[in-house]
Design goal:
This protein is mainly alpha-helical. It folds into two domains: 86 residues, Rna Polymerase Sigma Factor, Chain: A; 80 residues, Arc Repressor Mutant, subunit A, CATH 1.10.10. The protein is built from nine helices and no strands. The longest helix is centred in the C-terminal third of the chain and has 26 residues. The chain starts with a helix and ends in a 14-residue tail after the last helix.
């Protein structure tokens, strides 16, 4: 784990509780942005993040350092976010789409984002379109996409957070990318007016009239 985080955690455990504020300042924005993509609403994301930091503080003595502090913190927040998401959005569609696609369509949102090929997805209209599509994914699919493509986490880290095998993570990410691409393509087609033409019934579907 990050040596600086380890020093701060040790200080907190030794009684310098004010040092915990450094961890909050360091990770609260990143955690908020990640959780917001899971729960959809700013107030819900803020509540989940606050609860996660409180729970992490109360459980800090049990943190063994096998993973990074942020990974551990995100797992706490993730569990709360998914529970909230399932309670409030139990109707979210779990249908899988079956279009071909390739992996790596999005890039991690980090300090070098502007140099990444997928940086446009985080800007203006394209950011709105991406968020709109993400919000229609299942909680499981959305979470793995956020962690891998936006947070830049490795499969092994995500597996620890979600508590499923690495193979399951690979499968979810692949299916989530296909589904996301399908949703984005569908939205673009709707904006271009193509669905209106597609929804027209063929002439053969009309009742046959006498003399035809």
């Amino acid at each position: 784990m990050n040596p600086d985080d380890r020093l701060i955690i040790d200080a907190v455990l030794q009684g310098r509780t004010e040092a915990y504020g450094k961890l909050v300042l360091q990770y609260q924005d990143r955690l908020y942005n990640a959780i917001l993509r899971v729960v959809d609403h700013r107030d819900d994301a803020a509540d989940v993040v606050q609860e996660a930091f409180i729970n992490a503080y109360q459980s800090l003595a049990s943190f063994k350092g096998d993973s990074g502090f942020y990974t551990w913190l995100y797992r706490i927040a993730f569990n709360s976010a998914i529970s909230l998401k399932r309670r409030k959005w139990s109707f979210v569609s779990l249908d899988a789409f079956h279009r071909d696609g390739n992996e790596g369509s999005l890039e991690p949102a980090d300090s070098s984002l502007d140099s990444q090929p997928g940086s446009a997805l985080e800007r203006s209209e394209e950011e709105f379109a991406l968020q709109r599509a993400l919000h229609r994914l299942s909680p499981e699919h959305r979470t793995v996409l956020v962690l891998n493509d936006i947070e830049g986490m490795k499969y092994e880290e995500i597996a620890k957070i979600v508590n499923v095998p690495v193979g399951t993570i690979r499968s979810r990410i692949h299916r989530a990318r296909l589904e996301l691409r399908e949703l984005l393509m569908r939205d673009r087609n709707e904006e271009a007016g193509e669905p209106a033409a597609k929804t027209l019934k063929p002439l053969s579907s009309r009742p046959t009239q006498a003399g035809e």
